[in-house]
Amino acid sequence: MSGQPLIREHQVSDAAAMPYAVAVTDDSAVWATLAQGDAVVRRAADGSLTTIPLGEGGRPLLLVATDQDTVWVTESVGNRLVHVGPEGVRAAVPVPTPEAHPFGIATTGTGELWFTEMASDLIGHVDAHGRVREFPTGAAGGMPSLIACADDAVWFTLNQAHAVGCLRADHEQVEILPLPTQGAGPVGITAAPDGAGWFVQIGAGLIGRVDAAGTLVEHALPDRQSKPHAIAADPAGGCWFTLWGSNQVGHIGDDGAITLAELPTPDSQPHGLAVAPDWTVWVALEPGRLAEVSAQR
Question: Does residue 259 sit within a domain?
Fold first, then answer.
């Protein structure tokens, strides 16, 4: 990113609904979960809004775009994954382990799904036929959080184990990389075009990168108390991230250079974000808005 981006905000719900995560589908629609509203909201390319209820009490959290115009959503309390299109709910897949609290979700190039189970120390996989298989992380009480798919690996964060995990292409063994900073608390993670995992450490104010060989590099944020929450790769090899504690969005280049931008509304509490194919960055803001960040390339 060169220069300061243009940031516009769009109201998509009331503040009580709490937008939490964002995904962009191939039809240029922007989707967000409403964590306290038991729904997802879809902002079409023309700016029109559709709110799609998922059922009471499910607590939708993360979501991922999976094809031309649909998303899959994790329902933490509902203990299921929900497939949603513009017209409404298309299907649901229950998580086999009771009260697993599914959270992070990602998809492969073949359309299969991977998800985390915060309360059960498991990673879940849904194949093309809808069959679910679960894999132990090996970190008791580790709280698997966000997850990302690269070509030959699945990366995930272990928030309470202060570690990053990796499941290789053979799906037979989980590798765990403990982080060197005490209380790191990693949350968001993303896969870069080169297959490396980039992740944020909300408790330490650091951005980390781990490559396929397990080599770890960490970059300190200017404010170590800024609470980085989510991160998303861009096509140029860098990443965008949210700073929940300092009301900012940021960008880190593949060379480690960090640029920060203030959000227009104070205390907007940015959470999830997504990078659209046109490089626009969409950010979920807790008071019921989406931020549209138009970056200079």
Answer: yes
Q: What domain count does the chain have?
A: 1
Domain of 110, CATH number, reads 2.130.10.10
Q: Tens-of-pLDDT digits for all 297 residues of the chain?
A: 556 789 999 999 999 999 999 999 999 999 999 999 999 999 999 999 999 999 999 999 999 999 899 999 999 999 999 999 999 999 999 999 999 999 999 999 788 999 999 999 999 999 989 999 999 999 999 999 999 999 888 999 999 999 999 998 776 789 999 999 989 999 999 999 999 999 999 999 999 999 988 899 999 999 999 999 999 999 999 999 999 999 999 999 999 999 999 999 999 999 999 999 999 999 999 999 999 999 765
Domain of residue 136, residue span = 6-294
Is 101 catalytic? The answer is no
Q: Which of 162, 229, 251, 271 is catalytic?
A: 271
Instruction: Kindly report the three-state secondary structure assignment for every residue of the chain.
Output: CCCCCEEEEEECCCHHHCEEEEEECCCCCEEEEECCCCEEEEECCCCCEEEEECCCCCCEEEEEECCCCCEEEEECCCCEEEEEECCEEEEEEECCCCCCCEEEEEECCCCCEEEEECCCCEEEEECCCCCEEEEECCCCCCCEEEEEECCCEEEEEECCCCEEEEEECCCCCEEEEECCCCCCCEEEEEECCCCCEEEEECCCCEEEEECCCCCEEEEECCCCCCCEEEEEECCCCCEEEEECCCCEEEEECCCCCEEEEECCCCCCCEEEEEECCCCCEEEEECCCEEEEEECCC
Any domain includes 206: yes
